[in-house]
Write a structure and sequence with these properties.
Blueprint (H helix, E strand, L loop, with lengths): L10 H17 L4 H7 L4 H14 L16 H13 L12
Helix pairs in contact: 2-3
């Protein structure tokens, strides 16, 4: 029986897996399929790692910026204040049934 694995990994877990595989990839003495199998990835993913290593020089996670905030810092502060005051302070029911 195979060991349990989560259905989704966090970005940190994915990075850790890549970095753990790095010495084996760099050594070049283990067959690619064997490395892919031992880390639970497809050969396509494994070759993506090798390509990334070749072009970027490493397998560290890249920062994700996402969409820029649409709120100004002043609006964010106002929102925090409103949320801390609670729903009743703004004539909303605390609990809806």
């Amino acid at each position: 029986m195979a060991a349990w694995q989560p259905s989704k990994y966090t970005r940190a877990q994915l990075e850790e897996r890549r970095l753990t595989a790095l010495p084996m990839i760099q050594a070049g003495d283990t067959p690619n399929q064997q490395i892919a199998d031992s880390f639970g990835v497809s050969t396509h993913t494994f070759y993506s790692w090798k390509e990334r290593l070749r072009h970027q020089g490493g397998l560290e996670a890249t920062p994700t910026t996402g969409c820029p905030s649409r709120l100004t810092s002043e609006q964010r502060q106002q929102l925090c204040t409103l949320l801390q005051e609670g729903a009743c302070a703004h004539h909303f029911l605390e609990h809806l049934s």
